[in-house]
C-alpha cells in the first residue's frame, strides 16, 4: 500500500465561531485559533480543518457564502488568516479549509445578478425551472423556491438562502477552480469538500417515488467528470490533501471518489453512522466497518469520526455522558484511533465535552432545527413534543462554546456568546483536563502519539473477532510481525470472555488501556468493565 503523510495524520476540526473569542463580540475568531494553536499541537494533531470563514450572511453558520475570497468580519481579516496559516506551518502542522461549492448564499453577487432577469449573463450560474418537482431539500419541504422577479423557481439542496450552483455551466466551474487556486496559492494544504457529491443533478428533475428519501440529491451522472476536471485543472498541481463529504454512498461508489487510480479525491466521510444510526447499534456498526474495509482497503482511504459540528457529541449520542463519561469518551477514542482510516477529533471531544439540552427552541440557533420545528408545528403537532423530538440530534448539541476553564462563559469570551455555554463547563474544561494526568485529553494525546510510533495503527490489516458479541467489539490490526488486538466493551455492564485461541496462547503486553489497572498478566479469560478499552500487542 502506498504510504502518504495524510494517511498517517490526525485531523483536529476547529469550529472557529465556538473556539476562542479574542475581541469580545461573542464569536470565536481566527486570532483565537492562533492563540490556541499550542494547545492543538500539544494534543498532537497534524492537520487543522477550519470550518468556513468566508464572507457570508451566516444563515447556515458560514455554509452560505457571499464572497469566496474574503474573510467574514466575525472571524477577522485576511491578514489574520495569513498569520494563522503561517503559525500553523511554523508548528509543523497543516491547514485545510472548507470548500463549499454546491451552493452559494442568495446574497452572492452571482445570484443577485442571476435572479434579476432571464437574460442576465449570470442566469445560468444557477438552476432555474418553470415548474417545481416533488423533491425535498435537506432543510425545507421543497428544493424549489419561486422567485417573483422572473416567475421561475430556483433549486436549493439546503435552505432557500442557499441556491445551488449550476455545475453544467463551464463558466461556473472555471470560477470555482480559479477561487480554489486563490487559496491554494496562499499555501493552504487542502480542502474538506462540503457535500461534494451533490454537484451533479439528475437530468430533467423527475419526480421521486419516495420524496422523503433525499438520496436523489447525490451521486448523479456527471459528478465524476466534474471531480476529475477539478483534479486535472487544480488539485494535481499542488501537494494537498482532500476529504470529500459524501452522503448516500456505498463502499463501491466511495471507491469511485477516492480510488487511488481515479484522480479525484484522497479520502471521504460517509454517513452510514452519523446520519443513520441515532443510537449505538453494535451489530450495525460492526457490519458497516467490515463492509467498508472489504470494499476499500488497499484501494482507497476512509475516515473515522463519530461527531462534528453537525452531529451530537459522541459521549451523549453513543456513550454515557454522566456515570461513564470519561470511560465512554476514552473507549470511543480508542475505537476511532484504531479502526482503519484517518481519525478526526472535533474540538472539545478531546476533553469529553457533552451535548446540550436547552429549555426552549429560542435557545437554539441552527437553521436546520428551526426550519424543522416550524414545518412540524405548522402541521398542527404539539410544539413541546416536536421540540423534544428534535433534541437528541440537534446540530447545536456540538456547537456550543469550547470550555477553556471554569471562569465565566467557560473562558470562551468576555462578551455574550452567540450561543449559550453548556452549564457543565465548571466540571468539564481544558484547564481541569490539563491538570489531571488521567483525563480524556491525555488519553487522546497518548493514542495520537502511539499512531506516530506504530505504523500498524495506520497500515495494519483489520480482522474482526467475537463478531456476534453484543457488548464487545474486538479486532486485530496486523502489519508484518506486528500484531495488535483491540478489545472494547461498548456497554455499561461488565462482561467476561475468553481471548480468541490465536491470542490466548501467546504472551502479550498492554499498549494502552483506559482503566488505571489492566489485566495484562492474566490468562485467556478476561473481564472487561463498563466502556473498558484495551490494546494488546503480541
Ligand atoms: O452538511 C451536509 C449535511 O447536511 C449532512 O451531511 C449532515 O449529516 C446533516 O447536516 C445532518 O443533519 C454540510 C455541512 O457540514 C453543514 O454544516 C451544512 O449546513 C451543509 O453541508 C450545507 O452546506
Automatic annotation (TrEMBL):
Picking any one GO biological process from the record gives:
oligosaccharide catabolic process
Please state every residue range assigned to the domain named Glycosyl hydrolase family 13 catalytic.
Answer: 13-399
Q: Which SMART domains does the record cross-reference, listed alphabetically?
A: Aamy
> What's the top EC group for this one?
hydrolase
Q: Does the keyword Hydrolase apply?
A: yes
| UniProt similarity note | Belongs to the glycosyl hydrolase 13 family.
Please state what the protein is called: oligo-1,6-glucosidase
Task: Provide the gene name from the record.
Answer: malL
